[in-house]
Amino acid sequence: MGTKLDGKTLAANIRNDISEKIEKLKKENKKIPSLANIIIGEDGGSRFYFNTQNSVCEKVGIKTKSLELEENIQEETLIDLIKQLNEDKSVSGIILQLPLPKHLDENKIASTISIKKDVDGLNSLSSGKLFKGEDCFVPCTPKGIIKLIKSTGVEIQGKHAVVIGRSNIVGKPVAQLLLAENATVTMCHSKSDNLKEICKMADILVVAIGRPGIINKEYVKKNALVIDVGTTVVNGKLTGDVDYNDVVDIAAYTTPVPGGVGPMTTTMLLVNLCGDN
Amino acid sequence: MGTKLDGKTLAANIRNDISEKIEKLKKENKKIPSLANIIIGEDGGSRFYFNTQNSVCEKVGIKTKSLELEENIQEETLIDLIKQLNEDKSVSGIILQLPLPKHLDENKIASTISIKKDVDGLNSLSSGKLFKGEDCFVPCTPKGIIKLIKSTGVEIQGKHAVVIGRSNIVGKPVAQLLLAENATVTMCHSKSDNLKEICKMADILVVAIGRPGIINKEYVKKNALVIDVGTTVVNGKLTGDVDYNDVVDIAAYTTPVPGGVGPMTTTMLLVNLCGDN
Q1: Other CB atoms within 10 Å distance of the CB of residue A106
Q2: Where in this chain does the record put each Tetrahydrofolate dehydrogenase/cyclohydrolase NAD(P)-binding domain (chains A, B) (predicted)?
Q3: Most CB atoms within 10 A, among A16, A77, A111, A234?
Q4: B135 reaches A (C-beta below 8 A)
Q5: Which candidate from A111, A186, A191 shows the least CB-CB separation from B157?
Q6: Which CATH number fits domain A28-114: 3.40.50.10860, 2.160.20.10, 2.40.10.330, 3.40.50.300?
Q7: Domain A139-262: top CATH class
Q8: How many CB atoms lie within 10 A of CB A158?
Q9: What is the ipTM of this complex?
Q10: Which residues of A touch B109 (CB under 8 A)?
Q11: pLDDT tens digits, B213-253
Q12: CATH class for domain B29-115?
């Protein structure tokens, strides 16, 4: 019988540590971290993340500054605003909710965020630094995944990690982080031949493709560690890419959805805001 | 009997096309591309590349500006110089020979090169753009490798490509480029377990580890395409990572050393200077 890899509890423990740390900073009259959270319009579907991030920050005592901007904001106005936040000493981190409305150049605008405040790694320079192994903010979901894996005590070095999905915010950066931990890393995607055969080789399997339940036990090696990043709403229920009940017995560790990667992601935002590793 | 994948001839053909293009630009009194090539001191072992790049440029009619600087140059002086070259309209591309002397911060200085002139992709922002699939200069060696593979007509999409070696200038970017071509990509390195087993799965095998002759036919699947990026001098002779004579019969295509990737690398510098894909 495999083990549930419980992100909810791990995340709660990390948030407790952060609460205590902030409490201490307050007592010592030191600077408290703060988040500037930018959302544009209502069509991007990011209102949920925006609200969750703000509420998680406030619960641990991190200050938040919400910038809710009009759907039709001009590119230059937005860039000027981000530049002001870059200079603003009361702001430690900046998040921009994506996707942006179509008239705005996402890469250009995200890359205006100072890499010193880019707590979700949106700037392409942050991505380049991650890619090259330079010091930088690590995007929250990939960072949370590595912490989840490490929490099991399973050694990453030399192991074969297979990542399904190649998005810029999950699949590609998590592959780079696993490589930096000395795993052999295979990147698969919708165009991969022999997906089943390759997944079956994985000691560590990270699934981030947004196809509910596609990964069953036929894709999983005995005693593998399985991380499910899928979050599709099916019949009103948050559903992962992994068929948890089918996989949990063959894998050594499996993350549930919800309660696996999700809580780690928002918690890593707090970790980044506090400047922790 | 497999085929020699002849980079020397392919590169010569591309250089001929570029010569003709430059000739035409001259006749039409249009702007000729030019390279600013910076070398610092003599200890980095890059004098050979510096000379080769300049001579290849000059042969096709691309102008070169050599900046041979003192070993003990101050960081600020060098950064100011690069900023001047960024602004200089007579310069289309800038190359900085690496490694730099130890008192200089390589990442910081390389990232001063404007991404509009960063013809070898040294700036971390260029790396980030490559990583995210944004428009950018592609570093010369990885770009040359993709051109070599494509020259065979072998389809990349869906195939399993295995890259051995994870340097920032070859292994990591070539893995990203193969991924962008819809290959399934595995990144291996010195810490990988089961290297032989994984290599044996590769439809496309790219070897860039600098261990002369380590890859023999036991690592190669029948009819694979094998790219050898190794360039170690052994008994005065340039030697690849692949045991060519052992591998050539089992593989469908194998690059020789010398005459494979090497000539493509310098030629891709010309392609980048001309702004071609």
Answers
A1: 14
A2: 139-274
A3: A111
A4: no
A5: A191
A6: 3.40.50.10860
A7: alpha beta
A8: 15
A9: 0.96
A10: none
A11: 999 999 999 999 999 999 999 999 999 999 999 999 999 99
A12: alpha beta
